[in-house]
Amino acid sequence: MKTRAAFLLVLLASFALSMRFASTEERAPLPRAFIDGTGQGWKDLGEADFENVNLKPETWTWKDGVARCTGEPTGVIRTREPVENFELVAEWRHLRPAGNSGIFVWTTKESLDALKPNQLPKGIECQVLDNGYAERYEKESGKKAEWFTTHGDVFPVGVRMKPFPPVSPDGSRSFPRKRLSRSSSEWNHYYVRAINGAG
């Protein structure tokens, strides 16, 4: 029996987000190329597709197809309908430097039901960090930010995951192949493919 999981957005700082979603069961494979979330099988996601898990009602607002998050308090919204295999295109930007957020995949209902305010669920996180986060970390800690990047790391939160290459120096997370994230106020493009437990 397969456990169905919900795809979640983790809210840690202010950012705007525009998303498109495609069920892999509904569309033919695309050739490898820039994927923009348009075309057959893709669906725009909006306010009606999400529900609050452990946030204040005003944490998320939606206007003109774009979601905006205050980041206060830390917590999550989730898709109303659970999804297991999917592809997601997210256009995002942080509205202030050093923002921290993420997209969780394969998060169980039990993990969501147990969440209290200011908690995050168990699952696999696709990191959504502003470049200023690494700068702030290095300034405050006096250490190099070698164990994470601000370019879409994938890592487990309270679950086990075998990272895929390239891997962080400590072996805890998957690093991106390229470092393409733009700094706060500039839009970024993520393509997330979550298939059979093998992102």
What does this structure look like?
This protein has one domain. It contains 2 helices and 12 strands. It has helices spanning 109-113, 131-141, and strands spanning 6-11, 15-23, 42-45, 50-52, 60-63, 66-69, 75-79, 86-94, 100-107, 123-129, 154-157, 188-194. The chain has a 6-stranded antiparallel beta sheet with strand order 4-7-1-9-10-11. Strands 2, 3, 5, 6, 8 and 12 form a 6-stranded antiparallel beta sheet that branches. Strand 5 (60-63) and strand 6 (66-69) form a beta hairpin. It is globular, with a radius of gyration of 16 Å. Mean pLDDT is 84; it is low at 1-15.
Strand content range: 35-45%
Number of E strands: 12
Distance between the termini: 20 Å
Largest sheet: 6 strands, antiparallel
Which descriptors apply to this entry?
199 residues; mainly beta; 6-stranded antiparallel beta sheet; 2 helices; 8% helix; globular; disordered N terminus
What order do the helices and strands come in, and which of them pair?
Blueprint: E1 6-11, E2 15-23, E3 42-45, E4 50-52, E5 60-63, E6 66-69, E7 75-79, E8 86-94, E9 100-107, H1 109-113, E10 123-129, H2 131-141, E11 154-157, E12 188-194
